[in-house]
Design a protein that fits this description.
The complex is a heterodimer of chains A (586) and B (502). Chain A is an all-alpha fold and 586 residues long. Chain A has a domain at 550-586. Chain A contains 21 helices and two strands. Mean pLDDT of chain A is 83; it is low at 498-511 and 551-555. Chain B has a domain at 287-502. Chain B contains 21 helices and two strands. In chain B, helix 4 (114-133) packs parallel to helix 10, helix 5 (137-156) runs antiparallel to helix 10 (251-276) and helix 13 (313-333) runs antiparallel to helix 14 (337-368). Classes of the chains: A mainly alpha (586), B mainly alpha (502). Chains A and B meet through helix 5, helix 6, helix 19 and helix 21 of A and helix 6, helix 8, helix 12, helix 17 and helix 18 of B.
Chain lengths: 586, 502
């Protein structure tokens, strides 16, 4: 059977892509993801492929972990959809990089030890940085560097954590300290808050490393910074893998860690606040990734079987509808060259397929019944309710309404309807349409025919149904929520239209109530997040600029000046002196 | 007929020594290069055989007495796992860069000096090999002078391309001579105390001193050696000779130096600190290793920052080399198994990675005429294989998984944790982030924007250059994926050093 990590088909196949052209390249780019998908399903249940690493340690390249099936399947499927969408573009490096990226993500899900997980994790960072940078504009070049820097910082922190833990395990005489089992910190990892040795800090470092990748504020600004700068197809790939791989890793290492409930709630709110204030259509969708991943992180923090199932299912559903939304936005960008909501509008006249697919994606992200979002998101809310986590349930419910506001209505409304700007572009080329239709069909199919997905969840129930999404109360309460927030949107439309100026000139009714809410609750939140964002967007650029300026500026700083021979001699004598004195006085 | 197997250690030095001298008679044309390739190739084969012999024999070391003089009077060559490994690196990189040198030297050095160039080139390699193989402290100094003088000459030969090579060479000559005389003084003081020049003997005599820790002659010897060695291995901030020298030397010379010269300096430090003075004196009685650690940490941070600011890709890599020396020194200063193993394995990993990158820049200089960042702009469209090699090498410098740099980082961070040096963990990881920035600077230039000027018409480098470049780059990837050989060798060699064998 399959005796190698299925993701390698994509990673190694990607290396072939630059050498083929035309139809062969097209065929290959569609076949590789499908082959990976087949390979994923051919991996035997008891697979355990190991290779040796330094000093007798072993790396386990292929092993089924509980959530592997869900994530490996959707990652391969996503690689196929993305490749189909990207079929007509001719950038040389983007697709190979995206395949390395996607393939590594699949490899991460099959990793049975922390080191191979980390290796593919870093390979993902390389691939995705190149994808960002393939946007091939000045802005995407800069964004790519910032993106890479953040991810390698995260990787470095995570590596320090891994090594600290390996070191502690080695000291404890553990046979093979790389095994993932030793790294499943779960709820217990944070109970023992003592710093007796380097091992005790390990869970924190690893967690921070993962949260950076999951775009948790205040580490999360890279996502909205980088994703919208990639190309139309690049953003589609990017939306799927990085944050969801983090969700996967959190799920196997930190399931049930209470801290994650709050982290998830914060992400859900953060994403909404910024998505509502944003004007760039793809950046709106990027912020809503943070919001949606917040649901999953929250579910992992809750940590019950239902919550983990919900998080995994939601990741599956989310990848599909988010990719669909970004494909729709990407098609608009591709055909019009415009990306700001205020420049778009009235496209429903000539881009019906793009519009309908965008609306289906919007309904799915809003968890409208009979779409994929509904059968997954409600599981997390249900788990929160079952565990009497009232605050979490409240925030998640409010966030669901917020999602409907910004991604569910705002995006399609401003792009396809609203004011007609006289734009009359046709629908995009056939392959882009095909990719959108494929994912739109998946969105609806999953909403109606959800049993196959439920069957591969981390904790499939053998006795009877695992969770019943379509109860009357579920459907009714969700519809109520959506209708009311829909109503709110159209009432608030005058305000939302002017999102560029945040003066918020409310009419008389709101003047009494909203300013208080704004001053005491929303504004502090926006300010704090805004501050962290400013540090990232503005200060980091300024700092990087100062540090990388060559020649004249640098010469003024003594540290970087060329030493004259005379002062070099003084320095040499100084060091001789230091070594002598230190030797005498030790 | 000479028995090759029995005289293997001597032949490793004698063959290139004679070969180098004979190279002056090879005249013009292709002959000097062919002769140099033959000699370095034969030497490389001998070091391979040396390694195999050592591994097969299972002995901790192979001793060889030159001229059958007893080792306390004559000169002893002694090969253990550590220097067999370093010999392999020096001879291997020497051979590969020689293969590469033909086109590059044709282009950069006047035709009537080729025989001189290759003669000096072979002698430089001889000196480096000799330092590594010898078990005699004074012999170290003699061979150090051979390698230093030849290297000054090699750097100065860059003058046909850029006159600044002359001042760079002079600068290195002055600072290098100071370093070498410090080392000589140190050896002299050691001889005063011990009455011998054989390293093992020296160690034994030192250990017999009752007042070793307070003996002032030993202390002065120690201080002189530390400073002298720091200059030779370009430890920050005593690296002042290095950036200019690497920048203006002929391309092949830069690659050879970056891969081998400073590494042999580090090897000398191993022999003196661990072998002669012993771990107990160097790392426990004396607090000097803390100073080395501080210098190394500063070096990692500030040289990387300096590398980011460079406008010339060669000086960028030169500053990066100073930072990488910081990793190596920090590793052995920890004096624990993981740290020392990291140091040894990084000598190899950095040699292949940086050697490959300098060779690739040499190919750029060959096709485009310069190595400024502006020359690199958009070059990936014209020279994809050369630029690909540079990019992969760059990933190695960052320490990405699946490159050799990751293996080094793994050992070093683990070693730092073993000694509880959390500050060093931060420095090492921060250093790899800084490496990301300067490597990105190269990558962005190569893959972004449109080539202009000569870059626009450049063709891919000739195969005679591409093959050596890719051999080194492929090695840096191979030993990142399967580090069994390098990792095991380094771990065993580190155990040997820490066990105190001279």
């Amino acid at each position: 059977m399959i005796e190698f990590p299925p993701g390698l088909i994509l990673v190694l196949g990607a290396l072939l892509l630059p050498f083929v052209k035309g139809p062969v390249r097209g065929a290959l780019s569609l076949l590789l993801p499908l082959a990976t998908l087949v390979a994923v399903w051919l991996v035997p249940d008891d697979a355990n492929v190991t290779v040796s690493f330094l000093q007798g340690m072993e790396m386990t390249l292929v092993k089924w972990n509980r959530p592997t099936a869900v994530f490996a399947t959707i990652f391969s499927l996503m690689a196929f959809g993305g490749a189909l969408f990207a079929l007509n573009q001719n950038r040389k490096v983007e697709l190979p990089a995206a395949f390395v990226y996607a393939g590594s993500a699949v490899c991460v899900t099959f990793a049975g030890d922390i080191l191979s997980l980390f290796i593919f994790w870093e390979l993902m960072a390389v691939g995705s940085s190149i994808v960002v940078w393939s946007g091939n504009t000045e802005a995407s070049g800069r964004a790519g560097l910032r993106y890479a820097a953040v991810h390698f910082l995260g990787g470095a922190v995570m590596m320090a954590g891994i090594l600290a833990h390996v070191f502690a395990l080695n000291a404890g005489g553990v046979e093979n300290p790389l095994l993932l089992d030793y790294f499943a910190f779960g709820p217990g990892g944070f109970d023992a808050l003592s710093f007796n040795g380097p091992g005790d800090i390990a869970p924190f470092l690893i967690l921070i490393g993962i949260l950076i990748n999951a775009a948790t504020p205040p580490f999360g600004s890279w996502l909205a910074d980088a994703y919208p700068e990639a190309s139309e197809s690049g953003t589609v790939f990017l939306s799927a893998f990085t944050t969801k791989t983090s969700v996967y890793v959190l799920m196997i290492l930190f399931a049930g860690t209470e801290l994650l409930i709050y982290a998830g709630m914060m992400m859900a709110v953060y994403g909404i606040v910024y998505a509502i204030l944003e004007n760039d259509m793809r950046r709106i969708l990027a912020y809503s990734i943070v919001n949606q991943v917040g649901f999953m992180v929250c579910g992992i923090g809750i940590g019950t079987e239902m919550a983990l199932n919900g998080a995994a299912a939601h990741a599956f559903a989310h990848i599909i509808y988010k990719a669909l939304l970004l494909m729709s936005a990407g098609s608009v960008l591709y055909m019009t060259g415009k990306r700001k909501c205020t420049d778009l509008g009235g496209l429903y006249h000539t881009m019906p397929i793009t519009m309908w697919c965008g609306i289906i994606g919007a309904l799915a992200i809003s968890a409208f019944p009979w779409t994929s979002g509904f059968i997954s998101k409600s599981m997390i809310s249900q788990a929160a309710a079952d565990n009497h986590l009232f605050a979490a349930w409240m925030v998640l419910t409010a966030a669901s309404a917020g999602v409907f506001l910004h991604a569910g209505i705002k995006f399609p409304w401003f792009v396809f309807f609203q004011k007609d700007r006289g734009l009359r572009p046709p629908d995009p080329p056939w392959n882009m349409r095909a990719a959108m239709i494929f994912f739109a069909v998946l969105c609806v199919a999953l909403g109606v025919w959800y049993e196959p997905l439920y069957a591969i969840l981390p904790f499939p129930n053998v006795n009877g149904p695992l969770y019943e999404p379509y109860t009357v109360s579920h459907v009714v309460s969700q519809l109520q929520l959506l209708l009311w927030s829909g109503l709110a949107f159209f009432l608030l439309l005058p305000v939302l239209k002017r999102t560029l100026t945040i003066t918020l000139d409310f009419d008389w009714f709101y003047r009494r109530f909203v300013p208080v809410l704004w001053r005491s609750v929303l504004k502090p939140v926006v300010t704090v997040f805004g501050w962290s964002r400013d540090v990232f967007f503005i200060e980091s650029k300024r700092f990087a600029g100062a540090m990388t300026r060559a020649d004249t500026e640098a010469a003024r700083i003594p540290l970087f000046r060329e030493w004259s021979l005379g002062s070099a001699m003084v320095l040499i004598t100084f060091f001789l002196f230091v070594f002598l004195v230190v030797g005498y006085t030790h | 007929m000479i028995d090759i197997q029995a005289n293997l250690p001597a032949l490793i030095v004698v063959i290139p020594l004679l070969g180098g001298v004979l190279a002056t008679f090879t005249g013009r044309g292709i002959l000097p290069w062919a002769w140099a390739s033959l000699v370095t190739g034969a030497t490389f084969a001998l070091t391979l055989r040396m390694m195999a012999t050592l591994l097969q024999s299972g002995a901790p070391y192979i001793s060889y007495e030159l001229g059958n003089w007893p080792r306390w009077w004559g000169i002893e060559y002694r090969v253990d796992l550590l220097n067999a490994f370093i010999l392999l690196v020096v001879a291997g990189v020497g051979f590969i860069t020689t293969l590469y040198a033909r086109e590059s030297v044709n282009d950069e050095i006047a035709k009537d000096r080729h025989h001189v160039f290759y003669a000096v080139w072979i002698l430089a390699i001889t000196g480096l090999l000799g330092i590594t193989i010898t078990g005699d402290a004074f012999n170290v100094y003699v061979l150090l002078e051979i390698s230093s003088l030849t290297v000054y000459a090699l750097i100065a030969m860059g003058k046909d391309r850029d006159r600044r090579a002359l001042t760079a060479s002079l600068r290195y000559l002055i600072l290098g001579s100071v370093g070498a005389s410090f080392i000589l003084l140190g050896i002299g003081y050691l001889m005063m105390v011990t009455g011998t020049l054989n390293m093992e003997d020296m160690h034994n005599q030192l250990m017999r001193l009752a007042n070793l820790d307070t003996n002032r002659t030993v202390l002065v010897a120690f201080a002189f050696l530390l400073v002298g060695l720091s200059i030779k291995m370009a430890l920050y901030p005593l690296h002042m000779w290095l950036p200019k020298a690497y920048t203006y030397a002929p391309s092949a010379v830069s690659a050879l130096l970056a891969a081998t010269a400073t590494k042999v300096g580090v090897y000398m430090a191993f022999r003196f600190l661990f072998g002669i003075f012993g771990v107990g004196f160097s790392f426990y009685a004396m607090p000097s290793h803390l100073i080395l650690l501080a210098m190394a940490s500063l070096g990692i941070v500030f040289s990387s920052l300096a590398a980011i600011r460079q406008n010339n890709a060669k000086s960028l890599l030169a500053y990066s080399s100073v930072g990488q020396i910081g990793y190596i020194v920090a590793g052995f200063s920890l004096a624990n198994p993981d740290g020392v193993a990291g140091s040894i394995v990084h000598i190899f990993n950095h040699a292949v990675t940086k050697g490959g990158m300098f060779l690739a820049l040499g190919a750029v200089a060959y096709r485009v005429g310069g190595t400024d960042i502006s020359h690199l702009r958009g070059l990936a469209k014209r020279m994809p294989l050369t630029c690909g090699a540079l990019a992969l090498g760059g990933l190695g410098l960052i320490g990405m998984p699946l490159t050799a740099g990751f293996i080094s980082k793994w050992y070093l961070v683990k070693g730092a944790m073993g000694s509880g040096m959390w500050g060093l963990v931060v420095v090492v990881l921060f250093g790899s982030l800084l490496a990301l920035v300067y490597v990105w600077k190269l990558i962005e230039a190569m893959y972004f924007g449109e080539p202009t000027g000569r870059s626009a018409e450049a063709k891919e480098a000739p195969l005679s250059m591409l093959i050596p470049i890719w051999i080194l780059v492929a090695l840096s990837i191979y030993f990142g994926v399967d580090a069994t050989f390098t990792g095991e060798t380094a771990t065993r060699a580190a155990a040997g050093l820490l066990g105190g064998t001279p």
